[in-house]
Amino acid sequence: MIRSDKDILAVLTSSLEACAIYDSLELHIAYASANMLQLWNCDKNVIGHPLENCLHASDLPSYIGQLKKTWHTGKSHSDKNVLVKIYHEGQLGLHACNLTYHPLINESGETYGIYHTISIIPDNRLHFQQTDEKKIIERRLLQDLLTQKYNPVNSVHGNTILNRYHTTTNKRAEDINEKLKDALKKIIESEEHYHFALQSAEMGTWNLNCKSYIVHWDERTRELFGFAKGESVPYDEVLKYIHPEDRNRIDHEVKKSLNNQNKGLYDVQFRTIGAEDQKLRWLHCKGRMYFDQDQQPEWFAGTTLDITSHYAEQEKLESINNLIAKKDQEFRMIVEAAGIGIFSIDLETKKMELNDRCRELFGFEQQANIQEHDFFAQILPQYRDKIRHIFMEVVLKQSPFDCQCEIEDKKTEKIKWLRAIGNSQLGVDSRHQMIYGAIIDTTHDKEEERKKLDFISIASHELKTPLTSLIAYIQLLLSKEQTLSSDKRIQYLHQSNEQATRMRAMIDGFLNVSQLNEGKLLLHKSTFSICSLIDYVRNIYSLKPVKHFIHYTGKVHSSQEIVADRDKIEQVIINFMDNAIKYSPKNSTINMHVEVDHTYFHVQVNDQGRGIGIKDQTQIFNKFYRVNDSTDSYASGFGIGLFICQEIIHKHLGEIGVNSELGEGSTFWFKVPIHT
Ligand code: ADP
């Protein structure tokens, strides 16, 4: 089936032949190509008039008789190499021509027109042969077009006479004739348009003889394939100039058309590489297959259009799209990595969109459809009104929001603190008001904040005790200055000194933490004897009024040295020892064991105290962490000692840990390299 007038006119306009269509026995001219008008020396005004009336009596051509005969017989006829009186290059004369007469037959077998061609025999025989082949295709296309256009009219009205010049009372026939006239007019008009369009679109035409496998093409198609010359090229040769990546596909498509697998229609886009200029071009080829009476493929014809620039645009667009997709992906990755949940609420439909992280924060299933009420259901009741109010304000004032609230994780039922930041605006592809927001989990920050507050209250409380004692001793000394014995005075002064030293130790601890927070923990390394360090520690505990049995085990050679920050390693051992004393009962045993191997200095402090549960063991090295033990008598502390120990040991590239069981006592240990 011919898809449009353009299909046929693509071939007609590239024809070298003069052609005309007559639609009555009187040879009324329905269509005449520009070349035909030249041969007649007439202009377009002749259209609609009988041929005999148009030409000068002396110029009347000899073929009028044959035209009338063709109308009557309904049989095609051709005259080869006959002399015809025509105008050629402005001169009337007899010229050797080939003529064809093709009746246009309707479904009832009646003639309703004649398609007539004249071609002056050129010198170049090869060319002539090709135009002959083209002529056959043109005729078929034209026949197709006219049959398709007018037959339905005939079948509807059952009318076989289409000649509008016949005097008839049959109104229907007149209507049909009018339609015929219009249709032919349209063809003629569109020929001009199409010719113009073809040129301005730089479209080429081609056809493949399915018997000889020779491709004939016009100059434009040849140019698009990058061929220097040759109007006829074997099909295999043509394939060579198709880009290697497209070649098989195109060959396959052609074969499909030849086998009538795609209803004879062919519509492909592919690349060619210019034979001479090596230029890469993108072509769009459309075509169709014509079959002979035995349904064997006869001709394969169509058009070629250069779409390189279109592809370049498309590629540009694609690369922009890829860039956007990449940026989008990057953004998503950043959002994912930062653990940010993203959500939107359509305030009209109440539907919510959430990214994976947001679903995870709320404990929603990944695939579940989430509505606004599901979201509010997870917010703890005391915050719901506040959040609703914030959302309302955001929409009214179109200003951003930043709020915090507690929610319950739907899956784990854990309470979390979340912070949401966002804004309200119209949806990208809807007219609905939307709320967009980003959510982060602030549970940890809140916990830290709480710990800090606890710390401040504990620290103030702890400092207050020695300070009160200190003030009491000073007041005592002042008020009883005259009466106090020198022994008592010295005793009070010692006790004041002890309280002040306790306070200083506490304040040192706070300072250590703030130094650690700022990353300012600096090591002052030196080479020192391990034995001297152990002796020093033993000395401290021999002087302290301790109610425990302290043992020292392990052996270290007296010449054994270590490169480390002596004060800080000492601080860690003392912290272990003080804790062992603090968290184990009176009269129990504490054992400090030391060892040195090739690489490490090992220290273990074991006690018979209350022990530490597995869960707490993982946390006691965290800042401000204290085991919550309500059964025991209160042991003062801030939960920063072990945190500082861990920092010191890690700074020395060592390891630190605890082995413990509840009720069975604990063993705190560390090891540091002896040479760093
Ligand atoms: P502090 O002792 O000042 O609270 P630490 O950081 O030294 O701070 O210790 C953290 C917590 O670890 C303590 O509060 C205590 O609960 C636990 N802990 C430390 N040493 C022992 C020990 N030897 N036996 C039992 N619990 C201990």
Distance between the termini: 89 Å
| Secondary structure: helix percent | 40-55%
Can you identify the CATH class of the largest domain?
Alpha Beta
The coarse silhouette is: elongated
Largest sheet: 6 strands, antiparallel
Computed structural class: alpha+beta
Pick out the low-confidence regions.
1-7, 124-130, 141-170
Task: Give the mean pLDDT.
Answer: 81
**Could you name the CATH topology of the largest domain?**
Heat Shock Protein 90
Bound molecules: adenosine-5'-diphosphate
The CATH superfamily title of the largest domain:
Histidine kinase-like ATPase, C-terminal domain
Q: Any idea what the radius of gyration is?
A: 51 Å
Give an overview of the whole structure.
By secondary structure, the chain is of the alpha+beta class. It folds into 6 domains: 5-120, PAS domain (Beta-Lactamase, 2-Layer Sandwich), CATH 3.30.450; 130-198, no CATH class; 201-306, PAS domain (Beta-Lactamase), CATH 3.30.450.20; 338-441, Beta-Lactamase (2-Layer Sandwich), CATH 3.30.450.20; 447-515, Orthogonal Bundle (Helix Hairpins), CATH 1.10.287.130; 522-673, 2-Layer Sandwich (Heat Shock Protein 90). The chain has 19 helices and 24 strands. It has a 6-stranded antiparallel beta sheet with strand order 8-7-6-11-10-9, with helices on both faces. Strands 14-13-12-17-16-15 form a 6-stranded antiparallel beta sheet, with helices on both faces. It has a 5-stranded antiparallel beta sheet with strand order 2-1-5-4-3, with helices on both faces. Helix 17 runs antiparallel to helix 19. The chain is elongated, with a radius of gyration of 51 Å. It starts with a helix and ends with a strand. Residues 575, 579-580, 583, 607, 609-610, 612, 620, 626-627, 637-643, 666 line the site of adenosine-5'-diphosphate.
